[in-house]
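Review box. Two proteins, two foldings.
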Amino acid sequence: MLHALDRLDGELSIMLVDDAVIQTLNASYRGKDKPTDVLSFAMGEGEFGDVNPAILGDVVISVPTAVRQAKRAKREVFDEVTFLLAHGLLHLLGFDHETDEQDREMKKETRRLMKAALDTRPVRVQR
């Protein structure tokens, strides 16, 4: 995904957590006391956001929520987590979906990043 964004110097942390952890973070940082699928914490924002532009931030993904969403969408959990990572990464880079135009652009970029990531996925050999 970083290659597709021309951000090979980019650094981010990815945390895979359960619903309880993401609910605590969601309540603390967004004031929403419920689990969510993905949270992004951009390092490029705020008073010291320009200290190191290569450090993008943190993406936190709830695996149990991803599993539920994958079942509903009838897709692989790996693909759902990849989608959430792409979505979270775009938030780190300043993308948002507040307006219809922003939402269209974010969905387009999410699809592009997913394709880039999934096209490089190792092929599983059946034995």
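Next protein.
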Amino acid sequence: MKILVTGGAGYIGSVVTEELLNRYHSVIVIDNLQEGNREAVLPEAVFYEGNFGDGKLLNEIFENHRIDAVLHFAAETTIEFSMTNPKIYFENNVVNGITLLNAMLEHKCNRFIFSSTAATFGEPQYTPIDEKHP
């Protein structure tokens, strides 16, 4: 499969990218490097530096690679910003998310995994965090 990984230069995205490559998938990474590191992306993956909300770039990626699935790890997770500057959250998580979904629909890509964060729950009392966690 050809899989687009948004946020693929971040911790989770880079680990998932490595695992996908180990399973012989073709991986295309898009990351704006706001939180990620270019060095975290293995050279076997195709890398695009940019924002997953850039419709023109997404169209280029989908046209050039015929993406089969998207794994989305590029949502804003810095809890402080959700209170001090909710516009950042809204633009990245909602507006850019809709742009990504629209690009997928336009290119008939209907496999999507969205990864969120447990950071919204604060410091865990135990791990792994389960449904019974306070």
